[in-house]
Amino acid sequence: MNPDVCHSLLCEIRDLASRLPRVQLMEVCGTHTVALFRTGVKSLLPENIVLLSGPGCPVCVTAQGYIDAACALADQPGVIICTYGDMVRVPGRGGSLEQQRARGARVRVVYSAREAVHLAATAPDAEIVFLAVGFETTAPATAAALLEAENLGLRNFSVLTAHKLVVPAIEALLSSGDVPIDGFLCPGHVGVIIGSDAFEPIVVHHRKPCVVAGFEPAGMLHGIAALLKQIARGIARVQNVYPVAVGSQGNRVAQAILQRVFEPAPARWRAMGELPASGLRLRRCFDRFDAWRRFDLAEGDDYDPPGCRCGEVIQGKTQPAECVLFGRACTPLNPIGPCMVSSEGTCAAWYKYHRLAVGV
After folding, report:
1. pLDDT in tens, 179-198
2. For the whole prediction, is pTM greater than 0.85?
3. Containing domain of residue 322, as a range?
4. Together in a domain, 174 and 189
């Protein structure tokens, strides 16, 4: 971090803010949410520049029906569930995967989809199911793991898919009109895969500026300043202030792997319902790896525990401190909703970095 650069950007932001009314920007990505708190950037912004968290935490936007299906699958004899760590503690209607593991279910935390493939190769008598959750950042790794499983001829490996696409979710938020948003701080790591040009529909269809930014203080401040400049000038365009990692067209190799294995499909989002072309499903030629089909699973209705406002938090409709459960009944040790579970969850970030400021 270069303190002089950050100071200069903060001065620029304050100058722009002094000439603007209240501005609401949305950081789409959970990584940005945490970084804005952790680095202190959020606390340094002028009062009329409001940052809202969006539906960019993969665990938080995963529909309750998916969690319940994963828990039901963990109960089946011979099944080993492989998942990234955050998913283990998300409460389902009948408990979490962590609780099921305590009762004897075989649930294993992995650090990559490939690790699950290797487990399947070494445990041929078990059914290995990988919980494929995440945005375009992690979906290529799932696709590559499936291609490896195909090459190895594995018959005991499958994925329970819930991969999501970022841009359709942003468009759904804007189309609903429930929350006034003046611009979007777009995620750098998703941008690495899909490219900055992928955010053009938000500009073309909704006239909202989009700036792709990294996760260091200077990068985030640069992104916020760029958004305010566009708003002040009354223009809207896609701008990339993270060119060291993000190109206009993205990673063509990763995109090709995704297109070979997956195709766009409707997907259920927590509290947002089913959004068209917002998810990824396996192509027909990979049906044998589809855990939904293999185990005849169905995704049930959405559900929020009584009092939990995670569905509103991920849409920018409310802040965590406005939830009566936040920091009281719902804490990282006793999470009621996924926003308090995930390391990228808005409630978890507020609790870790901001709860004293809001009197919790």
Report:
1. 899 999 999 999 999 999 99
2. yes
3. 310-353
4. yes
